[in-house]
Amino acid sequence: MRFLCDDNLGKLARYLRILGFDTLFYSTISDPELLRIAASEKRLLITRNHNMSAKVHPYGILIIGHDNPLAQLKNAVTSLNLQIDSASLFDRCSRCNTKCLIVDKSQITGDIFPYILKSHEIIKQCPACKRYYWKGSHYINILNTLKKIIDEKYISGQWPEL
To answer: Alpha-carbon distance 155 to 143, whole Å?
Structure first.
């Protein structure tokens, strides 16, 4: 499933990307443009704008009523009955939505702290924005948070081991 989050749902967009979902987000965008992009790219539109409930969109519109990003995520997962592929967790860049690739650590020695290179087997990089990712404390904190709010029935496979 592919999503487009409105300009009030940037943190939700990041969480959906972390869960492996192709999710677009624009910090400033008009409602007609949201609808146009969502339709042309076959994306479900997720919005906080209750006026959008009167609109017709071929791929659906989910109205989110919560202010808290974690409550928004839980609402999206349960309302849409999302099946989260555990193998796809953390595969996308949380900032730009591009799929990340595993990098050869010998090619990035000047870009990453030596301790990170020594202590982590796998390091990924976003080919678009060049951001690096590894399973450090931030990964562990996010994973623990996700485990608390998302019921296991929505996970295909198992949560990664810490």
So the answer is: 13
pTM, two decimal places: 0.94
Structure tokens at 10: 């940037």
Alpha-helical segments (H) within 43-131: 69-80, 114-119
How far is 101 from 63, CA to CA, in rounded Å?
33
> Cα–Cα distance between 62 and 76 in angstroms, integer?
8
* Sign of the CA dihedral with 70 first, then 72, 73, and 77 last: positive
The gap between the terminal CA atoms of the chain, to the nearest Å, is 27
Residues 108-125 pLDDT 10s = 988 999 999 999 999 999
DSSP class of residue 92? B
Per the CB < 8 A criterion, the answer to whether 117 and 123 are in contact is: yes
Write down the residue that tokens 């990170």 correspond to.
Answer: 116
- Grouping H, G, I as helix, E, B as strand and the rest as coil, residue 21 is coil
Residue-range domain boundaries for the chain: 2-90+136-156, 98-134
